[in-house]
Write a structure and sequence with these properties.
Chain lengths: 433, 433
């Protein structure tokens, strides 16, 4: 019980899952503390737009305190969670601790390098604002540096971009880079011809977009090739260094020389999953996600819930729920419902994921979408994608700005947020060409 | 002569001066190379809005390549100028060099600490996007950290902000911080009362805004006090450390305990001024600006111009031209005219600065302005300020966004760009309270 005598709910993580749970508890007789390392919620689906200079960080991030300014049962706290003392119902923070009656952990995932974290230096991932600013800086700097070199041959290394991973993020990055090279920068450079740019999308699987129906994935691939992207499947990454991507192909090994390798190949759950696994015995999967029970709690701990990208929830068919925003939001709502039902001594049936469909955007007027047995491509799918993303950011005050920025970019092929600014990253000096 | 046989103009710096010269030369028979360390032009007058979370960096910065995409006689190059070889008409770059027929150096100024550069750590200035992001992070983090402390006494150090320097930048920062504390964050914090915030504006002079008429400055001071800012004049800064600002007052010395000291007390010219002074013998003034002749050239070097914040141009009365954007722009236009006149063997009279008036904004609906003998305060002055700044950023494609963002902020007291992100700065750990 808190000072006010109310049931104390601690929610770790202000992503889609934590936000959805917190909002769904707005009328519950509870005191909520929402803890996050950052002071803002990030609309991750549009992060690739920041990485490619189309949107500003402020357009896709909203301060958590603003979001909950008027929800009086929430206290927002910016802090690092460093551990859990479940027997005493405590969350251990970098500075201090929090006592809970119910705990919800929704700390998400980060870029995963299959145990090769040192690749991060030469192949940044795209999970945070800082990542996006770093990628934006590297990509733009490559064009600036290339413009100083005398021959196409000398510029080749700088103007080759390898994107590792043919999932939705990889496809979005590749498509957007192709548009930048072919259109946005067309008038900007006097010496280099932006069309010298090579954009290579590689994936270890036999095709890209494995989570999508095969005909949709093929349609996306055809569109990417039309836009000038080289799509290479059955190509497995061996290592990444300043020279480029070292890969294994069906016919042997190869070095794809590229100053910029961008990583969109995998995620691993927040390390908090491991701490919870040690505390409760719940097993971790290969991506570091913790297995949760049918009501999203941990075994033996009915007051501890885990949701979103760090939870492994087995569906009836055996497949885990995918790590996408709608799944995390559904789980957040479900947990809020369970918490409230307990006050009324009502039992709620186990969580069920409702697949609302999935979509990936390729470029201007091009996307793919599948909703149940329905499939869409081209302009229709792109309009669906646009509509759904605009609807989803309605809780952001900047939605109008985003719309206008997009409209402007669309009309002019411009990307106004093309700033090279310093970040906290270690900068890799470009290797000699 | 360049490859095309045209007269080669090298312009160093893409600020107001360099931009204005480059644009004014759009029809001249010259090949221009515009060199800047950054890839964007920064609209510095609105930097304080980024530092206080009202605007995103992308709103006040425009890529130089975009600005000149359609001006075919300009080549933009992102590089560091490290020296000059005037006898051989060369600008030395970090990588390579540029040969010029005419050189224009407009590299501006940076924050100046009167020789105490180590104060930068505890008292960041406000001259770059990185500065603004750093200040935004520090100010917001102070509120976040304070919210974890139990008593007003413990929070006092974190919630005291000292702004050093009562010029327009200091006044703008103080006024905006007061608005944030009193309005924007009012609903955001549960434990601290944002009104606990102390904002102290100090200046060594007997009054603030010394460049303005006394009655206008007094009116601004009254408004600041109304908004909750403590204005302390005749207070001289001795040193700055993690504890706060060590100052000398008319009655003795004192330590103003404050976790955040912001520096708006002075600028010093780009170090390129010193290099040019050594090469030409032209003297430097106390702020490191180089003395230029009546046609803005350096003595003995009729083909080398220096303008803007790094130039000291003596006016007939003996006063130097002030370091403001309109002066740099007028000088840029003048240099373009001189360059063009030389092709026609026409002589142009010396540069004359036309004072278009000056204005400073204090907060919502409050500003001061003086134009010749006309003086304005309050809402009228604020509308003038708004109008002139909106007009001035017309060359930015994001002007519409800025307008909307302002309108939104104004209506809702909101500041949507309140993100705490990492920067390249060395972070100072907060001292024990």
């Amino acid at each position: 019980m808190s000072l006010s005598g109310k049931h104390r709910v601690v929610i770790v993580g202000g992503g889609f899952g934590g936000l959805s749970a917190t909002k769904s508890l707005r009328k519950a007789p509870v005191d909520i503390t929402l803890v996050d390392r950052r002071n803002f919620h990030l609309f991750q689906p549009l992060l690739y737009q920041v990485a490619t200079g189309g949107l500003s960080p402020g357009n896709i991030a909203a301060p958590l305190r603003s979001i909950f300014a008027r929800q009086r049962n929430v206290h927002v706290q910016m802090d690092d969670v460093v551990g859990f003392d479940l027997p005493h119902r405590k969350v251990l923070l970098k500075e201090g601790e929090l006592t809970f009656d119910t705990l919800l952990v929704a700390a998400g995932a980060r870029t995963g390098y299959f145990g090769n974290d040192h690749w991060a230096r030469n192949a940044p991932g795209l999970k945070s604002i800082e990542d996006a600013i770093e990628i934006r800086g590297r990509v733009l700097t490559a064009f600036e540096e290339a413009d100083k070199l005398p021959t196409p041959h000398a510029r080749e290394h700088l103007l080759t971009f390898v994107i590792v991973g043919g999932g939705p993020t990889g496809v979005e990055l590749a498509g957007t880079l192709a548009e930048i090279a072919r259109h946005t920068l067309r008038h900007d450079f006097r010496i280099i011809n932006p069309a010298e740019t090579r954009i290579i999308l590689i994936d270890a699987a036999p095709r890209i977009l494995m989570a999508y129906a095969e005909d949709l994935a093929l349609s996306a691939q055809t569109k990417l090739v039309e836009m000038g992207v080289e799509v290479r499947t059955n190509v497995k990454i061996h290592s990444v260094d300043a020279e480029g991507a070292h890969v294994a192909t069906p016919t042997g090994t190869e070095v794809i020389r590229a100053a910029n390798v961008l990583w969109a190949a995998g995620v691993s759950a927040s390390p908090l999953a491991k701490l919870l696994s040690e505390a409760t015995g719940a097993p971790l999967d290969r991506q570091g996600r913790i297995e949760v029970q049918s009501d999203l709690t941990l075994p033996g701990h009915p007051h501890v819930f885990v949701i979103g990208d760090m939870a492994h929830f087995k569906q009836p068919g055996g497949q885990p729920v995918p790590g996408v925003a709608p799944a995390a939001m559904q789980q957040g709502k479900y947990v809020a419902k369970v918490i409230q039902s307990r006050f009324q001594n009502v039992t709620v049936p186990g969580f069920q994921y409702k697949d609302l469909g999935s979509m990936a955007t390729i470029g201007r007027k091009a996307a793919i979408a599948q909703v149940g047995n329905w499939k869409f491509t081209g302009l229709i799918a792109w309009l669906m994608w646009l509509f759904i993303h605009l609807i989803q950011i309605v809780s952001f005050e900047s939605r109008l700005l985003v719309l206008i920025q997009w409209a402007w970019n669309y009309l002019t092929f411009s990307r106004s947020a093309r700033l090279i600014t310093q970040s906290g990253y270690i900068h890799t000096p470009p290797p000699a060409p």
